[in-house]
Amino acid sequence: MKTSSAPVSSAPPWRGLALVLLGVNVLLLTLVLVMMARRNRAPESAALELSSTVAPKSTPTPAAATPATVVARGPYAALGSYMAENNRIPDLGWTEQQFTEFLAGFRSSYEGRGVPLDDDAKQLRDEISQRVQKMLAVEQPDPAEEYFRILREKEGVQQTASGLHYRVTEEGYGGPHPTAADTVVISFAGRLPDGTELRNFSRARVRMAVKDLLPGLAEGVQLLSVGGKALVYVPPTLAFPAQQWPADIPRGVPLAFFVELHEIAPKAK
Length: 269
Fold this sequence. Notes:
Blueprint: H1 17-54, H2 67-73, H3 75-86, H4 96-110, H5 119-139, H6 143-154, E1 158-159, E2 165-170, E3 183-191, E4 197-209, H7 215-221, E5 229-234, E6 255-264
Antiparallel strand pairs: 1-2, 2-5, 3-4, 3-6, 5-6
Organism: Opitutus terrae (strain DSM 11246 / JCM 15787 / PB90-1)
EC number: 5.2.1.8
Transmembrane segments: 16-37
């Protein structure tokens, strides 16, 4: 069986807990940058006012801004604004007092006078973390759905009513297709979306009852006639029951199988 002749399309990067942690860290960094911007604006305003008072009236040209002032009002402020807009800061719904308290706590820690994380603070931290997770879940597309979308658009893969995706790579000899009640001789090789081979789910010329195959694989076999070959992409709902998901396969990922139907066994009389 030449599994190398049937490549499996790469899937979009899988997002998990790392995305949630990234979102929380970016959120906190954004708030810190906002605090720094506020802190820098006050000295700058005072400096400009003092310059205006002391400078002789005969000097119409204002004093040039220092490099530090340009940094405070330029890219750092723009970065803070960008991060706030892209990380849904307004959706937290904090009041001005709550935001001020947050900045005060950060400043206290910066100055070596950290505020202990008591039970109330831990509860607040957990609540914010859950809210950020929900925001990210809404914003990020479902990885499996994105994977199948790419297959349909770029690989010419077809979809059945059950959600199974497949592409026939070689037509068979014609004739009948197996049914769920049949026993067949097949070869199949399983892979993950990233191409990782599933050795425990790969067989060569094995005799099996169609009903004993994974639901998605069983459906795929029934699409072939003897001699036919296909790439069958099985969604999680047509793979394993939740309580029987193999430990060595990432939970909830689609599975790809290269399948060849060699024979439909005669029915017993």
